Amino acid sequence: MATVVFADLVGSTGMFERLGDATAGRFVTQLTAALARTVEQHHGRVVKRLGDGVFATFPHERDAVAACTAIHQDLHAPAVPGDAPVRMRIGIDSGEVVEIEGDCYGDAVNSAARLADLAGAQQILATGRVRDALPQDLQQRMRPLGPMFLRGKSEATEVYRLDWQAGRDLEATMMGVSPLAPAMPRGALELSAGGVVVTLQAHGAPATLGRSPGATLTLNDSRVSRLHATVQWSAGHFLLSDQSSFGTWVYVGGQSAPVALRRTDCPLAGEGVLTLGCDRDTPGAPTVAWRVTA
User: Fold this and answer.
1) Same CATH topology for 2-162 and 188-293?
2) HSE-up of residue 226 (Cα within 13 Å, Cβ side)
3) Which helix (H) or strand (E) holds 260?
4) Cα(239)–Cα(175) distance, integer angstroms
5) 175-184 — which CB contacts under 8 Å span 24+ positions?
6) What is the distance of C-alpha 93 from the center of its chain?
7) Collapsing DSSP states into helix, strand and coil, what is residue 85?
8) Which overall architecture, per CATH, does domain 2-162 show?
């Protein structure tokens, strides 16, 4: 049994473009070394460095949460003069882990990696298994995001976001509502296709996607159903519900593989793209970009 952490650098591709390969390469090497030291200081072990991040295991959930919090806290200021602050995204799960020749495998490894892909900048996402194993004070800092279908898993996973900045209201991030003002809408979802942008407010009216001229966002393509999907605010996040004949493919953040929906639901977190009626490798795929904003 172990707690698994994946921590990835956000925007590494842009950093290499801005700084050049040599400077960015040196910086990323220094960054992963610093991440490894933080992991070790909190009783963890780096399984391997991932180029622009680390894959680590911890004996206890509280050690993993402490290490992930320290990572974010240490990266507030820009590490490269004149550049933007360094931002990480982190996923945590716990469970049985099998070690083979120094590498680790298991459902918890897969889930933690998927959560890191799903997380936004400066976010820590964890499963219900992690939350349930934490002491009460840390459990109170875990904000439920609802069930999510992680790539490769047939059942939904209960996902929580860690409020790692004590004393600061982080609920106005990708899809939260402030606990200080629970009735006040704070999130917004931007949907864009073909030069048309639609904004859906938290607690506002739902939006529809489809071929029908009456849809909130119309996509005139034979692969798109007349009423293909709806998006509405539900239980603290924007929920996409597929109602189509051919399905919806959801690409979240940097994930290369989609969550495929067929008459099922999926929360929209951070940013990404949807393709309606086919995957994005299909020529001319009808595509909708989304972004959740504070």
Assistant:
1) no
2) 3
3) strand 259-261
4) 10
5) 175/145, 175/202, 175/236, 175/237, 175/238, 175/267, 175/268, 175/269, 175/292, 176/143, 176/236, 177/202, 177/236
6) 14
7) coil
8) 2-Layer Sandwich (3.30)
**CATH T-level assignment (fold) for domain 188-293:** Tumour Suppressor Smad4 (2.60.200)
d(CA 172, CA 185): 9
Give strand ranges (E) for 18-166: 45-49, 53-58, 88-95, 98-100, 103-105, 123-127, 142-148, 157-162
Q: How far is CA 257 from CA 12, 209, 238, 241, 281, in A?
A: 19, 22, 21, 19, 11
pLDDT in tens, 130-163: 999 999 999 988 887 767 777 677 777 888 888 8
Q: Which of 26, 31, 59, 66 is nearest to 45 (CA)?
A: 59
Q: In the chain, helix, strand, coil percent, each to 5?
A: 20, 35, 40
Q: What is the residue type of 165?
A: Q
The amino acid present at 63, given as its one-letter code, is: D
Would you say 174 and 270 are in contact if contact means Cβ atoms under 8 Å apart?
yes
Which two tokens mark 143? 């904000």
What pLDDT digit, counting tens, does each position of 210-258 carry?
Answer: 999 989 999 999 999 999 999 988 767 788 988 888 889 998 876 677 8
